[in-house]
Amino acid sequence: MASIGTRNLAHGKSDAEDRLIEADGHLVDLNRACGGSVGETIAIPELLALVSKSREYGLKLSRQFHARTLEERVTAWVEITPDTGETAGCDIAITGWETEPLVAESPANLAARQMEISRHLAECTARLDPSQNVMSIETDAPDLVEFARIAGEGIGQPWTVFVEIVGKKRGQPVDWRALDGAKCRIPGSARDWTVALEPLGQPAPGSSGFVLHLSADQPAGDVSGSAQDDTPSLGRDLTPVLRQPINRIIANAETIRTQLAGPLRDEYSDYAADIASAGQHLLGLIDDLSDLEVVEAEGFTTAPDRIDLADVARRACGILGVRAKERGITLEPPVEGETQPAIAEFRRVLQVLLNLIGNAIRYSPEKSRVWVRLDAMDEQAMVTVADQGHGLDDDQQAKVFEKFERLGRGEDGGSGLGLYISRRIARAMGGDLTVESAPGQGARFTLSVPAGDGAG
């Protein structure tokens, strides 16, 4: 850290409206780096707060303040004396100055953060194979319903045949890097869309396919144009409306937190992280309430298909791998090559496993392990998620699948609907969701569904 301790390193004056009317040396340079200039309001946030306090209360202050530029973090000592003369402002003397270079975040980390923002903003998500052919597609946007239906019927075709890439001819996809960040137009939507392609697989990005994120450049208006019944529905009517602004809140908070738009004081970055976390929690509540409406509807059914529980479990572990790593938890999915054929709806099984594995990560101690294991018995295929957490006593096990029960493990948790919804989904697929646990011995949640050919 560079350090200068000479007295009166810089000097300045402010007026009655906290404008910097005189400045020299380090003070004028730092104020300019923070976006201000002489004659304008002081642009250094902590210094402005001190000057305002000194002027308002007529106090002489001698304090430390901090600031950040694009290249460095500044810690300075300032003496502020109220001016009782014509200016009615303050005399500002910088008497100490230290700087510390900012460590630039790696391009890989910046790219990862930008992709996280793209995920939050996306109103349409599609899973693509390594050739960028559509494997599945989902959307919450009313003006993309027809597009998603057509693309869903065109499974196996390149996603680019269903959209118009601005500046490119419609047809076979080019290298994914040339499409990442491109603008596109989608039939049936009056909005412009931005493409984000998330490559999957190592060591070659995209070797395991891609996730396509489509985000709109403007909010959706009343684009549904559908005459539904007059009864408001959280799942049908409110969820798409609520998700969009919340996703934008999260994305903007992440932009602030990661300082992609410019330098920021650490405490403001922390505030933005809190906003993003609260937004994520609210989004989870909305999703749970929407799912609750679906699973409690009369005649709720799933769409059974031939799936491999091992493949679904490995995908779930892959999705939650970063979250586990952040807590130092080792995720052990089924080993490559292991299979467990089953008859169930892929999307619903993935939903249940994400909930089970997410809970295991949330409630397990740091540096512990979470196992995902397969089994089969009595024509049922099973997948078990086991953790090394505090476990559940008999009373907690009796309540854990009840609506709004939050596992009885303190305030850190979700809506208390995840396990209730997961069990209803499991039973709708002809299976069940059960728990085995004991205090201090972790918990084992087992999802069972009808076995497919080859199980037994």
Kindly state the percentage of residues in helix: 25-40%
Q: Which class do the helix and strand fractions yield?
A: alpha+beta
How many beta strands in the DSSP annotation? 19
Globally, the shape reads elongated
Largest sheet: 6 strands, antiparallel
Question: How does this structure look, described?
Answer:
This protein is α+β, with helices and mostly antiparallel strands. The protein folds into 3 domains: 2-101, Beta-Lactamase (2-Layer Sandwich), CATH 3.30.450; 108-295, no CATH class; 305-450, Heat Shock Protein 90. It has 12 helices and 19 strands. Strands 1, 2, 3, 4, 5 and 6 form a 6-stranded antiparallel sheet that branches. A hairpin with a 7-residue loop joins strand 5 and strand 6 (90-101). It is elongated and about 90 Å long.
Secondary structure elements and their pairing?
Elements: E1 2-4, E2 10-14, E3 20-23, H1 25-33, H2 45-57, E4 61-68, E5 72-82, E6 90-101, H3 107-121, E7 124-128, E8 134-139, H4 145-153, E9 164-165, H5 176-179, E10 183-185, E11 192-200, E12 209-216, H6 234-257, H7 266-295, E13 305-308, H8 309-319, H9 321-326, E14 330-332, E15 341-344, H10 346-363, E16 369-377, E17 380-386, H11 394-399, H12 418-428, E18 432-437, E19 443-450
Parallel strand pairs: 14-16
Antiparallel strand pairs: 1-6, 2-3, 2-6, 4-5, 5-6, 7-8, 7-12, 9-10, 10-11, 11-12, 13-15, 16-17, 17-19, 18-19
Helix pairs in contact: 3-6, 6-7, 7-12, 8-10, 10-12
